[in-house]
């Protein structure tokens, strides 16, 4: 049901990234190309990793795209789950749980002490699902982000 992504999966991963962005009401922000994803996942220096959830008949049901982070407090790597997506017609079949279980297995196997991700505050079905697995929200932290003009302004020498 769960396997490591291969380069031939990139077009399908790209489609699912766009489907996820549409679900999250931010399709115009999903600008990554297939070529960028291919380089990030399978280039000379991979920046991210992906797993694919398949149905019993081999159809792609969803994916997880993740990368390593590091905790200065724990002193070890962890996994940051950038995207978890199961196609709407495949939800409820255990694919999301299986993807998260595979990432948890990798953490345990490699001695990583955290598996983290973000979820939109309005995404109640996902929040309920994550809580059912024992995940706890980190309510005391607020994510900040610099992009576009603000990033360019701060990053441009004066």
Automatic annotation (TrEMBL):
CDD domains: NAT_SF (cd04301). Residues 13-40 form a coiled coil. Pfam families: Acetyltransf_1. It comes from Streptomyces katsurahamanus. Residues 1-157 form the N-acetyltransferase domain. This is GNAT family N-acetyltransferase. Keywords: Acyltransferase, Coiled coil, Transferase.
């Amino acid at each position: 049901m769960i396997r490591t992504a291969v380069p031939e999966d990139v077009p399908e991963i790209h489609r699912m990234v766009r489907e996820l962005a549409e679900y999250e009401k931010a399709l115009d922000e999903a600008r990554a190309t297939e070529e960028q994803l291919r380089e990030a996942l399978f280039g000379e220096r991979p920046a991210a990793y992906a797993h694919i959830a398949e149905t019993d008949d081999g159809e792609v049901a969803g994916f997880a795209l993740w990368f390593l982070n590091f905790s200065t407090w724990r002193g070890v790597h962890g996994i940051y789950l950038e995207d978890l997506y199961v196609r709407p017609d495949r939800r409820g079949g255990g694919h999301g749980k299986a993807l998260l279980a595979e990432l948890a297995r990798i953490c345990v196997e490699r001695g990583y002490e955290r598996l983290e991700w973000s979820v939109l505050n309005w995404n109640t079905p996902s929040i309920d699902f994550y809580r059912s697995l024992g995940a706890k929200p980190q309510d005391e932290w607020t994510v900040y982000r610099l992009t576009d003009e603000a990033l360019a302004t701060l990053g441009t020498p004066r």
